[in-house]
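Request:
You are asked to prepare a plain-text protein record giving the amino acid sequence and the backbone structure tokens, at your earliest convenience.
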Amino acid sequence: MVLINESRRTVIAHNVYRAETFLKRLRGLLGRDRRAFPAGAALLILPCKQVHTFFMRFPIDVLFIDDQYRVLKTIEFLHPYRVSPFVKQARAVIELPPGTIAATGTLLNDRLNLVNREVWT
């Protein structure tokens, strides 16, 4: 899956991994090396209203989105051993390599979309 920002007409991530089961959401990026989460990668955690970075080895960018994939909150460079705010209206969280939010110009209220990889070939 590819994550695009329809409002900015930019690609945020070329490789989106989904964490929808309890175990996948629990595991997330914990204990992984930064090389396992390169530029162009993203982790979609669904459902999710808050994240933590305990036991992580690198900072991440975080997007909180609603049911319509509208950006409700952005956090840049959430460092290890931190807890994000609880975003009551959020339906999901997208974790990104650090610097992705700034590099793609993603802002509050932007509309995102997930598309099949085949669309981009």
About this structure: Strands lie at 2-5, 10-13, 15-19, 41-45, 60-65, 71-78, 92-96, 112-115. Helices lie at 22-27, 100-104. The CA atoms of residues 44 and 94 lie 5 Å apart.
